[in-house]
Amino acid sequence: MSIMTNINPVALALYMQNNLCILDHAEKVIRVFNSLSVKFYTHEDNELMSLKFHHMAFVIDGCCKFLKSQKAKDGSKGNLTEDCLNPFIKYLIKGDSEGFPMALEKFLRQDIQKYPYHECSLFQELVRTLSSVQLGDEPSAISIISEAVNGQRGLDPLSRCATCGDPFGKKKCSTCKSVYYCDKTCQKLHWFTHKTQCPILVKMSQIEVADDEAKNQCSGGAEIPGTSGAEKGAFSNSDGAGCSHD
Questions:
Q1: Cα separation of 140 and 133, whole Å?
Q2: CA–CA distance, 109 with 210 (Å, rounded to integer)
Q3: CA-CA-CA-CA torsion sign (15, 112, 93, 31)
Q4: DSSP helix/strand/coil, 181
Q5: What is the pLDDT of residues 135-187, one digit of tens each?
Q6: Helix (H, G, I), strand (E, B) or coil at 161
Q7: Strand residues in the chain grouped as ranges (E)
């Protein structure tokens, strides 16, 4: 999916890892994108493209700052490799106790706050919507921004890749079967945080299946295991076809 459409910072970080020349010339790329943001807003009256180029410049700048901080922290040479941004990606997607990626949420909110054209109607719409949602609550910032810039309300958020946000994730976690990924790379990157939520999702799925089976048995007039004939009658209509709602 195009990085102009998938505005998830992780998607852009993965794209840069596959195209290290962007990181090699990051300062120049950031200047160009910021200039395009100005041009689209002031000369072409295109708020959407202006915001998108600002967003990409902000994400690239965030990646560069993270790499510099890592270099200062561990004393590395700062060589660019195909996995150099994996620590930054994991920082963004790490879930809290309920699996919510708080760092990604804060990063995106700061991204919008840094947009310079506060009179922009799109900016004002995003600020109003984001300010009405507390940190950690749904809808997430990535959902709000994606809907505003791409009109993605109709896409099923459950099928999104849990790592990069691609809306067409076709692979599921083989254990919980509740979380989607677009490929093995995204699944491996997400496992460090998903492994704490995976057993919880499995348990929730088992409960849902058990509830559905109980409802089906009840509506079909089937005998519920462990109930006597008299008890069974308490669950049936007068014609024995289903549950009584009296």
A1: 8
A2: 40
A3: positive
A4: strand
A5: 999 999 999 998 888 865 545 567 889 999 998 888 999 999 999 999 999 99
A6: strand
A7: 171-172, 180-181
Its pTM surpasses 0.90: no
Cβ pair 193, 99 in contact under 8 A: yes
DSSP summary character for residue 222: P
Question: Rounded to whole angstroms, how far apart are CA atoms 166 and 160?
Answer: 5
224 touches 123 (CB < 8 A): no
CA within 13 Å, CB half, 122:
21
CA distance 36 to 42: 10
Q: On the CB side of 199, how many CA atoms lie within 13 Å of its CA?
A: 2
β-strand partners of 161: 180
Residues 58-88 pLDDT 10s: 999 999 999 999 888 876 666 788 899 999 9
**Which residues sit opposite 171 in a β-bridge?**
181
Phi, psi of 105 (to 5 degrees): -60, -50
Q: How far apart are CA 181 and CA 62, in angstroms?
A: 24
Report the half-sphere exposure of 203 (CA within 13 A, side-chain side). 5
